[in-house]
Amino acid sequence: MKVRRLWSTCARTAWFASPEGQLLRVLCRSILLLALGVTFALPVLGSGRNTDRFSISLGAFITDRDTDSRLDSVAGQGTAIDFEKDLGLDASGTVLRLDGYYRFNRRHRIDFAVFDLSRDASATIDEQIDFGDETFGVNTTVSAEFDLLIVKAAYTWSVFDRNNGYLGLTAGLYTADTKSSLSEPTLGVAETRSITAPLPVVGLRGEYQLSQWWTLRGSAEFFAIEVDNVDGQLTDLHVGIDYRPAKRWAVGLGYNSVRIEVDSTKAAFTGSLDWAYDGALLYLKLGFGAIN
């Protein structure tokens, strides 16, 4: 199956890419989304897409992560920190992820996802770090914490609806509940900043039944803002393939890539936050109910 082989090739290439290979990652993701669109021009290969009204997926999300942050103070600009390289946070890991959807009818549905990418570590720093109102000196052992809870929900209206698939417009909220913290308990030095950012996103979502057992799915969601004190953008790309050996359950393999870049001069957060994650998703999918 050509689309499946293309997905596998691109995912392996992106997974092992060096930082200099970011352009290749973007190219791979673009090809995957293009492949999803092209499939709508193909003849019907299967017996029609599934008719589950409600579906829930539970899986392992194997992620690569990159977190850069700077927290300023009234005294001036803070230090740009790479949380993985400078403070020892894990650059990769596996977390539990919950996804699902509810269909009101064939053309209207709501999708959701919940997962937690929080991490913590301790490291002895080799250069001074200014983080908010606190300063951490050279050779200080710093405890770092970066909490990140992701909750996503989006409504989709199927503009094109066929027995073997759909392509729709989507709009929703991407909520990132974040907390950045640096501390040195023996010196009584600590700085914590929390942000809950419900970001409105728009984009495309689609699905195509490749055969009786195989279904290709994909989505692309975007957000951008530029006002007086906030400049930011978000890109969320997802592609997956399901194998359904029975009517009410399936197993699947997916790939999800997200990047958020924010510069802010608001009182609640003055500085910059640039974080990204991407990786493979292995899941079990269960379906309930039916629509006509």
Describe the structure in brief.
With 292 residues, the chain is mainly beta. 11% of the residues lie in helices and 62% in strands.
Largest sheet at a glance?
Answer: 10 strands, antiparallel, barrel
| Order of SSEs | HHEEEEEEEEEEEEEE
**CATH class type:** Mainly Beta
CATH architecture: Beta Barrel
Helix-strand category: mainly beta
The amount of helix comes to: 10-25%
In words, what does this structure look like?
The strands form two sheets. A ten-stranded antiparallel barrel has the order 1-3-4-8-9-10-11-12-13-14. It has a two-stranded antiparallel sheet with strand order 6-7. It has two helices and 14 strands. The protein has a single domain (2-288), classed as Beta Barrel (Lipocalin). The longest helix has 17 residues, at 22-38. Mean pLDDT is 84; it is low at 1-21 and 38-47. It has helices at 2-15, 22-38; strands spanning 54-71, 81-82, 92-103, 108-116, 119-124, 129-131, 134-136, 141-162, 165-184, 189-209, 214-226, 230-246, 249-265, 270-288. Helices cover 11% and strands 62% of the residues. It is mainly beta and 292 residues long. α1 (2-15) packs antiparallel against α2 (22-38).
Which short descriptors sum up this protein?
2 helices, single chain, Lipocalin, mainly beta
How is this fold's topology laid out?
Elements: H1 2-15, H2 22-38, E1 54-71, E2 81-82, E3 92-103, E4 108-116, E5 119-124, E6 129-131, E7 134-136, E8 141-162, E9 165-184, E10 189-209, E11 214-226, E12 230-246, E13 249-265, E14 270-288
Helix pairs in contact: 1-2
